[in-house]
Design brief:
Length: 333
């Protein structure tokens, strides 16, 4: 569903009002925290927002209107990424957000960026898809493996991003101290611009492939992906079981072979504050037959958002509304 600028501004202005009534139907705005516009969370968020929305007064589903939750208008908000989305859910500035499974694990248990402050109110709607760790460098770079990053100008992404968390874990696994890099902390689209100007040698990005920033860098700048593999990865996965072995297939990005790397699940999270009936309706809409057509025809990662994978890699409990749906269809016993 695509919103005009005027309609979107009106929607945002109304966010201060929890409910309105239009033609006898309650109107509810629902904010989804995603990531940078050059990543994968943002376009996937737009797909899902269209799926779960069904504004008051819209045509019925069987006549080409919204097939989502009656009265719901979902809006997508860009953000710094997983950590920022968790914080937004906790402080109420977001109703939901996309979060890497490892970041969700740390937040729920009060570890890492959330040390001493366990976010036990976090709940899951579903796992959406797997995210891949991209390590990209200039085509003429001497970097062939993670230890070669010493002395290089490498972006680890912005504070608040899940990429920064995972980039640090990868560096630690390979025995590379962050201080031995000439590290930058910028979003992937900014990193590509800096590479174009000769001001950066590469960047990390944890995202579902393909991403526009990596496509641009490999296609226009001749950049290349660096494998993340070997015994340090084996140890990393043993110590952090939410990580998995992963491949970025040949053909996903221009002139790139199949690349070994690590992956992590992308989860859709909410808070215990959300009404169970609302979350039930959102979950049912996400897995409705009409949603399958939209997911398959949108971003390539949309094809991986499948009911049979929805309960994998969940590092926080299900929301009761989502749990009710999965029990009704027999996915949970």
């Amino acid at each position: 569903m695509v919103w005009s600028r005027r309609a979107l501004l009106a929607a945002l202005a109304a966010l201060a009002l929890p409910l309105r009534t239009v033609r006898g139907q309650e109107l509810r705005f629902f904010r989804i925290g995603t990531g940078g516009v050059a990543g994968t969370y943002y376009p996937i968020g737009n797909l899902i927002a269209g799926i779960i929305s069904s504004p008051p007064g819209a045509r019925p589903c069987d006549k080409g209107g919204g097939c989502g939750v009656p009265g719901l208008v979902a809006t997508v908000q860009s953000s710094e990424g997983s950590i920022a989305n968790v914080r937004g859910i906790l402080d109420g500035s977001l109703d939901s957000g996309f979060v890497q499974a490892d970041v969700a694990y740390d937040a729920y248990r009060g570890r890492g960026a959330f040390a001493g402050r366990p976010a036990t109110e976090l709940r899951a709607i579903a796992k959406l898809y797997n995210e891949s760790t991209h390590l990209l460098v200039r085509g003429d770079s001497p970097v062939r493996a993670v230890p070669d990053l010493v002395g290089q100008r490498i972006s680890l992404d912005e504070p608040g991003s899940g990429t920064l968390v995972d980039a640090r874990l990868v560096l630690e696994a390979f025995g590379v101290e962050e201080g031995r890099l000439r590290a930058a902390y910028v979003k992937p689209d900014v990193a590509v611009s800096m590479m174009r100007k000769g001001r950066l040698d590469g960047f990390f990005l944890v995202a579902g492939y393909p991403t526009s920033s990596v496509t641009e860098a490999t296609g226009e700048l001749g950049a290349r992906l660096v494998p993340i593999k070997g015994e340090p990865v084996d140890r990393l996965i043993r110590e952090h079981p939410f990580f998995t072995y992963d491949l970025i297939p040949f053909g996903v990005y221009p002139k790139q072979p199949t690349i070994e790397t690590i992956g992590v699940g992308a989860l859709w999270l909410v808070s215990t504050r959300l009404d169970a009936e609302l979350v039930y309706g959102i979950t049912r809409a996400l897995w409705a037959p009409f949603a399958r057509r939209l997911l398959d025809s949108g971003h390539p990662k949309g094809r991986e958002i499948r009911l049979e994978n929805a309960l994998e890699s969940l590092t926080v409990p299900l929301h009761p509304g989502a749990e009710r749906y999965y029990r009704e269809i027999g996915a949970l016993r």
